[in-house]
Amino acid sequence: MLKIIRSSLYGFLLALSFAPFGLAPFLVFIGLFCRKLYYIQENSSILLHAFTFTYSFYFLQTYWMPYSIYQNPVVPIFLVPLLACIIPIPFAIFSTISIFIAKKVHKSFISYSIGFSFWWAILEYIRSNIFFPFQWALLGYSALYMSYFSQIFAILGVYMAGLLINLMVTSLFTKNKLYISINLIVIGAFSVSGYLHQTISNTKQLPYINNVRIIQPYTKFSNAQNYPGQTFDTIDQLSKSPGEEKVDLLIWPEGSLPYIFFNSLAEIKIWQSYLPSKSNSSLIFGVERVTDKQYFNSLIAVNRNNLSIYDKHILIPFGEYVPFISFLPKKIARSTSTGGFSVGKNNNILTTNGINILPLICSESILDHTNFSINSNTKYDFILNISNDSWFSGTLGPEQHFALSRIRAIEYGLPVLRAGNSGPSAVINAYGKILKRTKTDIETILDVPIPSRLVNSTIFFQYGHTFFFIVVILYLIILIAIIIRSRTKKN
User: Fold this and answer.
1) Number of domains forming the structure of the chain
2) DSSP assignment, residue 374?
3) Can you tell me the distance from the alpha carbon of 162 to that of 164, in angstroms, rounded to the nearest whole number?
4) Mean pLDDT of the chain, nearest integer
5) What is this structure's pTM?
6) Looking at 185-281, which runs of residues are DSSP E strands?
7) Which residue in 490, 412, 407 sits closest to 456, CA to CA?
């Protein structure tokens, strides 16, 4: 029992290397667990220790996901702790399978530590994409807190980052100086390249917009539904705070407006009346939009002459739509209140007053560009991520979600403006550095300039996960060759 508790503790402590803690040295616990598991031989014990370790690791990163139920009076509250315990299970199952495979196909500790790292990365990629894209709690995210090495996101992406981190940490327990040295050299080389990436990359400043105002109204779900006028007054008052006359771009977050947009000309004129006083100013806001009996989670950009619309492309199952609803009995399908949004079909771009914006609504910021139809990142001036994390106030969720906006900035080579209903709202440069941010769960504004963007596309944007796939394929070819050779010798 004590050994099981120790495995659980290792998993919990490993999670502290991720947002919001960012304690990179705690990555050592994945190496400690790898070494510990090597000496366990019984299959049942291997599976039990692996599941316990990974379940504790994922629990800290997912326990808050069902907290939105507290804001829905129809759903029984007792489901919150129950779902908090259930949600980490599928995550843990995939990682447990990866650990078990590595343990069974590798014999020496060095080869086992290599297999441990590769199979973890392989199963991590599979579980992030197999049912629907959900790139959450990936080991590579811990690289965000490793100074210059974090720029590996701009070169190889998050899966390759996780693989290299795992290889490095587990190698420390092999006591093989050559193998450890090779991993140190690789990590060092990417850290140097990250330093060079930050110091010599060409950047481009946006010349025609200087002042952005991000509104963080901290609109609670119940207030938005019961007191829509009061909610909108708060947004309007924050928008007109001192300095409004200098604002070029005004941004309202997701989930802050208690109204539905119907695309009528009269509506457009109403929203134009809330534009900042500068003649060439723009307003961007998140809102639910209805057209042709379809509901969309949308971002709308309005200026004095026209508007631009982006509808969310990748929806959250059970949160924004019900999977396979057409197969459910009609009574159940009609009674469900979980989601109901349609998938957006328009381009991944918002344009207003000569500004080209890459829009990411809420959970879209947890996905890299390979999940979207984006053929060039050089056409964008910045990324705009609007979100409503007030459902999860008081948990680790908002900070964990926010951290992924920093990774998207590095991957794309674009600055990020983030407008959170309850925060954090922030401005992030193209290297993932936070230039200014707000606290969570407060009403406030953030007046910021738009940082410069990289002139050229990042390597990761051009090639995506190609290098990761090549390395994994080479590993599998070598592994198969070794297995065939060993069986041939036995025969």
Assistant:
1) 2
2) -
3) 6
4) 90
5) 0.93
6) 203-204, 212-216, 249-252, 260-261
7) 412
